[in-house]
């Protein structure tokens, strides 16, 4: 789902202009309404106070002479039927005596003469309690809590004696139409401003966004089409967008130079890699040759033993087969059709490595071995074990120990090769199975790479645990019983 951040600048700029106009209009409207409310409220309070004082002064004589009709006429003359400013018109005017009984009112049906002014209840019921507070000769404004009414109470004073009160009740919602009118006017003004600014902002957005859109299109062509990106029609102005376009052109030019250098380096590296690969293949083929030469040397010294002769011939046959398949094992392009890996293959591999181990006084121990052939290609597994054993002998160092453990379950074969030499540093673990990555001066960096590739080809997993004095390579290859 696309968000506002994903929109093009052609849309973002007009939308932000609209948001700015709406925000400004809202802030101005709120400020004007608040100011207008304060002005209207002050005018209303001032008018109400003046009206209360005028009525109190005028009604003194009718109240003293108990002239209800005259008092009613005075109230009616003060109550306009169609006022120019309805919010300044009192909702009801009450004249009470000293005992808070209604003397006269503008609404005689709701407030009959002689009844308590608190009879309607609600906010009117709270007014009587206010009479006992403060000076009886003070004019007061009362705003009961949670009530839409507020009151102006003006005392009727004759010779310093309070005869009663003139109470003007105003409805606060009466101010609402004035405020709604002001909000409506502000809304119309905002709409007109938007109708003018939207086309202007749209044109402005297109002019502003067009160079950036061309720059974004050119950047999408990196790094595959550097020449097309360099020739893109980018702005050449002196502002920030023009400076960005100029920086982009410089970057593309530098990337082209770097790309050409990488091509030359890659060509040189390929030639060097061919040389290293040739040396590595010779090294891998030389390993079984060394073992076979050792077997022939042993046979020459003890050739009269027929059993030894048969064993030597068998070893030579398997070694020559191993050499024939070495190239296929190194390239790891396809599975080699081969016999199953058998227990005697482990014996052969130990014999092949014994010469190298004897030269470094390394002891080779076989902790466990498989009891019967497992349905996995012997050539590939011999290559795995041979490389691991040779690496372990080299890592163990003079007087070290190498242990080989092989065991099978109904589902998989597990091989573990241990040495007690120097451990593998943590920073080297990430590059352990890369080609040509070696920690020895005489190594070619292909042994572990071949082990990893063959293991993955057979759908197996390889794990390494290394700490000072103990390094173990564990390989698990599934096969299942056929």
What does this structure look like?
- The protein has 482 residues and is of the alpha+beta class.
- The chain has two domains: 176 residues, Beta-Lactamase (2-Layer Sandwich); 193 residues, Histidine kinase-like ATPase, C-terminal domain (Heat Shock Protein 90, 2-Layer Sandwich).
- It is built from 13 helices and twelve strands.
- The strands form three sheets. Strands 2-1-5-4-3 form a five-stranded antiparallel sheet.
- β4 and β5 form a beta hairpin.
- α1 runs antiparallel to α5.
- 25% of the residues are buried.
Instruction: Report the helical percentage.
Output: 40-55%
- Please work out how many helical segments DSSP would assign: 13
Provide the CATH architecture of the largest domain. Answer: 2-Layer Sandwich
Q: Give the termini separation.
A: 52 Å
**Low-pLDDT ranges:** 329-336
The CATH class of the largest domain is Alpha Beta
What is Rg? 52 Å
Q: What is the overall pLDDT average?
A: 77
What fraction of the residues are assigned to beta strands by DSSP? 15-25%
Order of strands, main sheet, comes to: 2-1-5-4-3
Major β-sheet annotation = 5 strands, antiparallel
What would CATH call the homologous superfamily of the largest domain? Answer: Histidine kinase-like ATPase, C-terminal domain
How many structural domains are formed by the residues? 2
Overall number of strands: 12
The CATH topology of the largest domain is given as Heat Shock Protein 90
């Amino acid at each position: 789902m696309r968000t506002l951040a994903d929109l093009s600048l052609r849309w973002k700029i007009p939308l932000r202009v609209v948001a700015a106009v709406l925000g400004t209009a809202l802030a101005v409207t709120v400020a004007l309404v608040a100011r207008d409310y304060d002005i209207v409220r002050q005018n209303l309070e001032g008018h109400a106070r003046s009206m209360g004082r005028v009525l109190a002064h005028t009604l003194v004589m009718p109240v003293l002479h108990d002239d209800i009709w005259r008092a009613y006429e005075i109230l009616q003359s003060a109550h306009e039927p169609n006022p120019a400013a309805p919010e300044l018109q009192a909702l009801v005017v009450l004249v009470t005596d000293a005992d808070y009984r209604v003397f006269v009112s503008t609404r005689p049906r709701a407030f009959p003469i002689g009844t308590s002014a608190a009879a309607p209840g609600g906010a009117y019921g709270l007014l009587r309690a206010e009479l006992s507070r403060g000076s009886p000769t003070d004019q007061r404004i009362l705003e009961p809590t949670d009530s839409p009414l507020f009151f102006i109470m003006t005392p009727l004073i004759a010779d310093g004696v309070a005869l009663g009160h003139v109470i003007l009740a105003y409805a606060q919602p009466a101010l609402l139409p004035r405020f709604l009118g002001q909000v409506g006017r502000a809304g119309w003004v905002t709409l007109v401003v938007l109708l003018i600014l939207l086309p202007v902002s749209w044109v402005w957005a297109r002019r502003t966004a067009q160079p950036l859109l061309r720059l974004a299109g050119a950047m999408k062509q990196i790094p595959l089409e550097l020449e097309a990106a360099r020739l893109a029609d980018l702005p050449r102005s002196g502002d920030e967008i023009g400076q960005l376009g100029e920086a982009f052109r410089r970057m593309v030019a530098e990337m082209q130079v770097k790309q050409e250098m990488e091509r030359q380096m890659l060509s040189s590296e390929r030639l060097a890699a061919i040389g290293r690969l040739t040396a590595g293949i010779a090294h891998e083929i030389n390993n079984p040759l060394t073992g076979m030469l050792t077997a022939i040397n042993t046979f020459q010294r003890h050739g009269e033993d027929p059993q030894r002769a048969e064993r030597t011939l068998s070893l030579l046959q398997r070694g020559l087969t191993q050499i024939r398949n070495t190239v296929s094992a190194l390239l790891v392009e396809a599975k080699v059709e081969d016999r199953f890996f058998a227990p005697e293959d482990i014996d052969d591999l130990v014999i092949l490595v014994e010469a190298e181990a004897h030269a470094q006084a390394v002891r080779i121990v076989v902790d466990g071995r498989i009891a019967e052939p497992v349905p996995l290609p012997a050539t590939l597994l011999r290559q795995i074990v041979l490389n691991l054993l040779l690496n372990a002998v080299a890592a163990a160092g003079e007087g070290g120990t190498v242990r080989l453990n092989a065991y099978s379950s109904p589902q998989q074969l597990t091989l573990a090769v241990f040495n007690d030499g120097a451990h593998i540093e943590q920073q080297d673990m990430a590059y352990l199975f890369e080609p040509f990555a070696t920690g020895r001066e005489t190594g070619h960096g292909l042994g572990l790479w071949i082990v990893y590739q063959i293991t993955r080809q057979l759908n197996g997993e390889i794990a390494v645990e290394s700490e000072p004095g103990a390094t173990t390579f564990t390989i698990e290859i599934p096969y299942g019983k056929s």
